[in-house]
């Protein structure tokens, strides 16, 4: 069936706009644990430059560290810091080999006194690790390497850069529409919250990509992927969520469910482990 | 054959989809004819709002609604009456048309209140509703697509409603006999008449905003980093997400489109409510009947929203627990009571009862909110007293 020329032009135009809007988001996820090629991520049209992304990451980190210092929430135990840095350095060594553009990043890691189970690595290689997460892993270096590898993978895959670009396009468009039609801040905020939920599947895809590359990095750095993957047993905890609440989790969370991550990481670990198909 | 006189409560004119292209053509000619006028007015509107936002107090943001009403009415009057002249001449004609109508135009901002409340409720309830669907049905992809479609549809309804006070302000400025009620009804009828071309316009605006903002973000995101040498990380992120260039360009488009849209829509509304067809007395009677119908429908809508809220609430409590259940329930009850007050107001208007009964739909929420604030203050006070008591009791133990 042939389509009339004006309709075709309109559809082509809309497709182009959608394609441009989607650029800089998730690329094709790496799904094969055995195919670690050590190459930079595929060429994507990013909304912001790598330099700007790095600048935002480094400045954001400097501001965060300054405020944590004022609140006396930075860990000062040198032995603890050194133990974690050993793990981080081994991972960074692998990261630089695989992604040479990260060679001139000023890698750094600080431990934050916070019970929340969290860690981060900003564009530019600035990392934080919460004491809550260290307590959960009981300082198991394989589990810590899994977590730090995952965070480093986010930075290497430039997920932060992609998220900043996507947010700028989505929020900026909503802002421009709201201003044009005089929509108040309260309404705009509720609309933004709803729209952020629409983009959550892209965030979850980023997490899956980072899970895979993180496991590959930690394995190459000499850690045991099977022990590392077991961190998700600790993360899940003992009490299962109500059955129907479990249905809600994949919809409202920016991360895949703990069950899904445990299954995926166990499978990745099986492939990467000594004697596995990747070895 | 005697032509049938159309009743004002009958559906208004239904403008064709193609009217949108004539609005766009008209806007292009207008903007190209007077680029500096539109650039200046758009800059003034955006900067004024930004300045008022920066003051950080809600009361100042409300001021921007008032100034917008003046600016939009002035521009629409100037362009429709002074078309063909210079930008300065149009500005002068607009000013002369607005003179003596400043306060009545300001009053039309009140039409923004029901608009704002309705679209806020839509944006609040849509994600909650979809969330309830996920809990019941379990398909995340379907829910995400549904949420996106629902938010776009909600955006369209919001745009239509946001135009209500704008058109009411223009109607109030251009018609010396217009009242607060008649200007709002005129605007409402005009929007109903233009719903089809407005839907096309919304889609074009949305895609225009996406395309423009994507290009603008890319351009800003690829400037040399030295440009941002004095900026904090937050400054960069906020500037990127606030899309100042896109906002400015879209505001230009909106202002250039507004005179054409307003003239067309208000004329369409005018066809069956004009003085040529009805006497003032008839118009008032029909206008009242129309207002009564709007009140009844609004009341039904609010009660429906309240009932749906309770349904969502039950789903959450039953299956996943919900921390804000109490608060949610209170608001559902308040909304239901408010919906009932609309029904009673409609009856009071129909039976010409006292003003306090006729404006019950405004008085009820005001009284309820005051009551809730008073209750919250009492609870806070009691909580503070109990906390102080606890501290006093535990202090001697700590000393020991």
List keywords for this structure.
heterodimer; A: 279 residues; mainly alpha; three-stranded mixed beta sheet; 63% helix; disordered N terminus; B: 400 residues; 15 helices; 82% helix; 0% strand
Structural summary, described in words:
The complex is a heterodimer of chains A (about 280) and B (about 400). Chain A has helices at about 5-20, 50-70, 80-100, 130-135, 140-155, 160-180, 185-200, 200-220, 225-230, 230-235, 245-250, 260-270, and strands at about 110, 120, 125-130. Chain A is mainly alpha-helical and about 280 residues long. Chain A has 12 helices and 3 strands, in the order H-H-H-E-E-E-H-H-H-H-H-H-H-H-H. A 3-stranded mixed sheet of chain A has the order 1-3-2, with helices on both faces. The longest helix of chain B is centred in the last third of the chain and has 40 residues, at about 280-320. At the A-B interface, helix 1, helix 2, helix 6, helix 7 and helix 11 of A face helix 2, helix 3, helix 6, helix 7 and helix 9 of B.
